[in-house]
Amino acid sequence: MTQTTPTPSDEPGDQSRRRFLATASATTAGAAAAPLLAAADPAAAAPRTAAQPGMPVGKSETLAREISVDAGEALTTNQGVRIADDQNSLRLGPRGPTLLEDQILREKITAFDHERIPERVVHARGAAAHGHFQVYESLSGLTRARFLTDTKAKTPVFVRFSTVVGSRGSADTARDVRGFAVKFYTDEGNYDLVGNNIPVFFIQDAIKFPDLIHAAKPEADKEIPQAATAHDTFWDFISLMPESTHMVMWAMSDRALPRSYRMMEGFGVHTFRLTNAQGTSRLVKFHWKPLAGVHGLAWDEAQKLAGKDPDFHRRDLAEAIEAGHFPQWELGLQVIEEADAQRLGFDLLDATKLIPEELVPVKPVGKLTLNRNPDNYFAETEQVAFHVGNLVPGIDVTEDPLLQGRLFSYLDTQLTRLGGPNFHEIPINRPVCPFHNLQRDGFHRQTIAKGRVNYEPSSIDVPPVRETPAERGGFTTHPLALHGEKLRRRSDSFADHYSQATLFWQSQTAVEQQHIVEALRFELGKVTVPEVRQRMLANLVNVDRTLASRVAAYLGTPVPPASPRSGNRAYSPSPALSMIARGNPKSAAGRKVAVLAADGVDAKALQAVKSALLRAGLAVRVLSSRLGELRAADGETIAIDDLLVTMPSVVFDAVFVPGGSQSIAALATQGDAVHFVREAFKHAKPIAASGEGVAFLAQAGVLASPNEKPAGVLTTAGAADAAFAAAFLADIAVHRHWSRANAAAIAA
Ligand code: HDE
Questions:
Q1: Does ligand 1 have an atom closer than 6 angstroms to the CB of 410?
Q2: Considering only 162-166, 460-464, 595-599, which range has the smallest mean pLDDT?
């Protein structure tokens, strides 16, 4: 081994370093912490950085050591032994080889080597939060689940949102389905509602799930592309699986580009069963309706966000909770008597079908509030284990062949992902009610079970473990008479693959239809195999001929004849399926607004709008070309929150440009500022400008002239007063002003 020449050190030596450390510990938090440590253990009061007795302190130690102070908890090994030196491994002489004997180094490196656990095979990238759920009125007529019957119960929950296809390090804003998994820690055990933000699924039978995911994930030879469905293998599979067409329509809509986890619906997807104390069973579909409304991003924006802020959704969730803007959803139920299920005209066991809300209304039954961010991503968000089989008495499954496969899959995957059968003992997965059984041992067992009896029945166990009859709260499966041959066959009632895809298409507004066409243009435009494109177009003809011809026009190909189909049920359009037509609460709370400013800004205008927005529960950031403070036209100083270059327009919902001739003259010379408003305009975002700010919008090409009034662009030559701020808030509540005629022509 070649020895390197020691770096000449300009350090004055060990003595002065010790003096530095002594001063640091006396003048920093260490001074306050020392008595506490001393009270617990006099030995702990010694500076943590002091060398072990007999161990010389080297001359080239790291800065980390120099700035460490004698505060906080003692650093120890996993055996609780205090560590005197966490900067140097043990070696033979200061320049000699490291000794294998160094148990501290080995323990630390070994732990590090094993930090990663297998990521989820799907839904690998997620973000989560804690909160609670409370039912509005007792649902005892429907279910005996206590968290749905006891109106006083504030059931703790942990909710994990996710993308499906991308790996753990992929971007949040990929075009994808979002997972919406809720763990209810009820006093009768954990109940998991493991849903998505799209109410139907791509496939009908679990046996096709590995194929679907293989096709959607990066292609097997080059592992390209990451977190994207726009590639040959996905569309090859989809084009050959007509049952996927309905969900594909959703995935091509703005539902697959949520503005925020806080602004998307959730669905249990499958039909489940609710059973009451009398044993009556009814079929149910679960919905989550966000109180902040359902809103999406523009596709161009989503792609740019993937580079500029790949953590956009997880940051948004964490920041909203930190700011006290707690995300909330209502739990909604669509309840169907078993006898009525036959009359719907489709099969409720088919996960590619939804029940239009106009046919069976969604009844709001309770509220979910997320109010606490996790303390540790790995311990909570990564280690949480959801399972559709985590059921409580009063909620049961149906024979949906997709759901049946899931009942096997979740526990199975978690055995590997979490390293053995005891992951229910990990704090985030533990029930909050007592749990006790005769399962024993295995990797990572935490519980120390007492006594010699680990079987049942037993006459020597005092008190013995016992079952709980249904009437006292034990879980029972709803009894069902099922008859049939053993076979591999799909029910004929699952055969209609297009009627609900047509329903979805026809329920969208013109703008939303255009976005679907553009999404298909992008996705199929990335497909390199012409036959796959043709097959997809032939399927789209079955959805709607105009849709197929609009996509075909972009692909430069004639519309092929329709692919074969079976079944054709007519539906009336369902406004509830449209993000726009369904209507949204007229509130701008929880949105994020940028203010563009430079020295000489009109402070009055800036402050008037800013304080009105803050009062309405929005986040406001003042952006400039540098950090520090701005000197306003009237001499006031205004704190700058962020640099223009670090916070581009895509991370905001709206932008305000206050006047002030010097400020506007400066902004006009800054490409970042000009690009900011052009891009916000292109993405249909609300824009407001006052005074000289109006001319800036015209210079940037957002307005053809200062007098033009495109949708969602609010201007005033006069004062930015309370009425102006109120009008801006109303524009923000609309979210996006898609009707802007010339937005697509804007180069940004
Ligand atoms: Fe999942 N799914 N899934 N899935 N799923 C997983 O479980 C699976 C399906 C959903 O935040 C995995 O622990 C099969 C539908 C969510 O931790 C795995 C089938 C719906 C999450 C699995 C489906 C979902 C998962 C991966 C077809 C909406 C993330 C790691 C039969 C109702 C949960 C894990 C979290 C995760 C299997 C279909 C939702 C492999 C076999 C339909 C939200 O077990």
A1: yes
A2: 460-464
Ligand 1 atom nearest to 210, measured from its CA: 41
Question: pLDDT (tens digit, 9 = 90+) per residue, 642-669?
Answer: 999 999 999 999 999 999 999 999 999 9
| DSSP result, 40-95 | H-GGGGS-TTSPPTTPPPPSS--HHHHH--S-SSPPB-TTSPBPS-SS---BSSTT
What integer pLDDT is reported at residue 59 of this predicted model? 61
> pTM of this prediction?
0.91
Give residue 260's Cα distance to chain centre: 8
Q: Which residues are catalytic?
A: 123, 196
Which residue reads 């993000």 in tokens? 579
Residues present in the chain in total: 748
| Separation CA 261–CA 589 (nearest Å) | 15
Beta strand 189-196 with 328-337: parallel, antiparallel or unpaired? unpaired
pLDDT at 126 over 60: yes
Report the alpha-carbon distance of residue 34 to residue 44 in Å, rounded.
8
Neighbouring C-beta atoms of residue 442, cutoff 10 Å: 12
Give, using CA atoms, the residue closest to atom 6 of ligand 1. 122
Ligand 1 pocket test: which of 163, 244, 406 has the largest number of ligand atoms within 8 Å of its C-beta? Answer: 406
Give the pLDDT band of residue 638 (cuts 50, 70, 90).
Answer: very high
